């Protein structure tokens, strides 16, 4: 955020944002790497255990902030958002080991242990979350078997941990806290019974609201970045999906959204959680959004299936046989629609590895013929994602008591015209694509609001996004809405 509003252009006409281009962001922050074998860091780690390299991430954040301040010394604040559910454990101001990755197989084993005490249906009625084996509560159940948890005095989700590194102040931002499974869906407070059972009752920091000030950038970091004055760190909607939906330029209160990156988060925005058996059996989650809204949504695998397939093919190819997604997509788009779809949300696609092989197996099991080329695999993924986005958008809206009037596709996946068009075709409603960097916009808008006074409701934030970004519209081709 810059302090003098010079990055947003206040003219006679509508207020417009100077939206950072994806390339700009890459240049500043570089590409953060994903899952590492835990054994890269800890000698006695199980071979299949996965972790994030938070030290590398922190080094990149510092590098990026240095570049950002060099360009704009008038930056007034910083806001941090990230993926959800994963956490750092601290003892006396030091991190204990690495942050485990939510794709770590230990979580699956923990599910049945936790369910000995808390049945899945009871958990849903307490926390309103979709069952996902990587929710923080399952990770903590696995962690209980490890001595590390007993030694910890503080648990911080990833953005809260970065905020602490930046300011020295501890807190638990509410939108991200709502993904842990430890928040009571009715009271919005930490659930003491679950926290006690999981051994984290004394380690959970106080909840803080998005828009509040976490603290001031530590002086030694301000000096490192070349910041001329005091810089605030603002708690934004620190769950990336919460930031993305806050900035999604929804057409009406009855519009559905898909925040499509690694994950496809498909849902609607509601004033209150839906804790019915239908919602639970449908696999829906109630996550807290900006201004106490509820994101009733379903986690469906997103572009992970594409990126992991490409990674797998490249890993197993000669150095001169490396391919990119961009090089294969035109041929995939030109193919006939496949007769068979896969369920992108199936647990078999969660772990890294031979995703194309698992897709072929799923197609054969469904009675289809094995895809013969990489382009066919990609086409099956895109058709399956679109079908799943369309179906889940209608289910979410149905649980909210309406039919969707449009589907907004935001995030990296909105750059694929084929995915947008197929989603429109399969849903029978218009797909509005963009912004690509919706999470970054949601982050910066909450900071803008924190600086700018009272009258920035979400409607006004979304209007600013509409004024600033070139959206693309995809009308459905062919038959009407899905049943
Ligand atoms: C999206 C996301 C999802 C969460 C998954 C894992 O990036 O934050 O909302 O379920 O990542 O944290």
From TrEMBL:
Gene3D superfamilies: 3.30.420.40. The keyword Cell membrane does not apply. InterPro entries: ATPase_NBD (IPR043129), FGGY_C (IPR018485), FGGY_Carb_Kinase (IPR050406), FGGY_N (IPR018484), Rhamnulokinase (IPR013449). It comes from the Bacteria. Keywords: ATP-binding, Carbohydrate metabolism, Kinase, Nucleotide-binding, Rhamnose metabolism, Transferase, Xylose metabolism. Signal peptide: none annotated. Residues 47-244 form the Carbohydrate kinase FGGY N-terminal domain. Residues 256-450 form the Carbohydrate kinase FGGY C-terminal domain. CDD domains: ASKHA_NBD_FGGY_RhaB-like (cd07771). Pfam families: FGGY_C, FGGY_N. GO terms for molecular function: ATP binding; rhamnulokinase activity. It is an enzyme of class 2 (transferase). GO terms for biological process: D-xylose metabolic process; rhamnose catabolic process. Its EC number is 2.7.1.5. Belongs to the FGGY kinase family. This is Rhamnulokinase. It comes from Paeniglutamicibacter gangotriensis Lz1y.
């Amino acid at each position: 955020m810059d302090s003098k509003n010079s990055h947003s252009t206040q003219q006679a006409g509508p207020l417009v944002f100077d939206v950072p281009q994806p390339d700009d962001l890459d240049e500043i922050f570089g590409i953060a790497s994903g899952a590492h074998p835990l054994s890269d860091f800890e000698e006695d780690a199980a071979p299949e255990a996965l972790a994030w390299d938070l030290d590398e991430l922190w080094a990149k954040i510092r590098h990026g902030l240095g570049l950002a301040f060099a360009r704009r010394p008038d930056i007034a604040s910083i806001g941090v958002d990230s993926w959800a559910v994963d956490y750092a454990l601290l003892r006396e101001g030091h991190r204990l080991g690495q942050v485990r990755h939510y794709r770590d197989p230990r979580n699956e084993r923990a599910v049945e242990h936790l369910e000995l005490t808390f049945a899945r249906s009871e958990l849903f009625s307490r926390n309103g979350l979709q069952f996902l084996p990587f929710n923080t509560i399952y990770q903590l159940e696995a962690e209980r078997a490890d001595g590390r948890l007993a030694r910890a005095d503080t648990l911080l989700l990833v953005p809260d941990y970065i905020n602490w590194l930046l300011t020295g102040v501890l807190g638990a931002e509410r939108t991200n806290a709502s993904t842990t499974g430890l928040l009571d869906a009715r009271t919005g407070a930490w659930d003491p019974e679950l926290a006690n059972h999981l051994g984290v009752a004394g380690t959970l920091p106080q909840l803080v609201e998005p828009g509040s000030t976490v603290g001031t950038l530590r002086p030694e970091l301000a000096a490192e970045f070349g910041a001329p004055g005091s810089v605030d760190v603002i708690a934004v909607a620190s769950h990336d999906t919460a930031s993305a939906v806050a900035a999604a330029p929804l057409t009406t209160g009855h519009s559905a959204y898909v925040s499509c990156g690694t994950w496809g988060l498909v849902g609607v925005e509601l004033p209150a959680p839906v804790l019915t058996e239908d919602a639970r059996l449908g696999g829906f989650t109630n996550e807290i959004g900006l201004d106490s809204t509820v994101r009733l949504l379903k986690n469906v695998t997103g572009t992970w299936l594409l990126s992991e397939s490409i990674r797998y093919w490249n890993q197993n190819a000669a150095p001169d046989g490396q391919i990119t997604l961009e090089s294969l997509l035109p041929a995939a788009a030109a193919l006939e629609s496949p007769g068979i779809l896969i369920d992108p949300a199936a647990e078999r696609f969660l772990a890294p590895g031979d995703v194309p092989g698992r897709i072929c197996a799923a197609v054969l099991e469904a009675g289809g013929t094995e895809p013969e080329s990489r382009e066919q695999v990609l086409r099956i993924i895109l058709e399956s994602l679109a079908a799943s986005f369309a179906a889940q958008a209608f289910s979410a809206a149905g649980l909210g008591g309406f039919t969707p009037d449009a589907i907004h596709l935001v995030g990296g996946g909105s750059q694929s015209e084929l995915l947008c068009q197929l989603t429109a075709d399969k849903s029978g409603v218009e797909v509005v694509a963009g912004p690509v960097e919706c999470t970054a916009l949601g982050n910066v808008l909450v900071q803008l609001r924190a600086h700018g006074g009272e009258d920035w409701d979400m409607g006004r934030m979304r209007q600013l996004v509409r004024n600033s970004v070139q959206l693309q519209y995809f009308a459905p081709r062919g038959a009407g809405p899905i049943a």
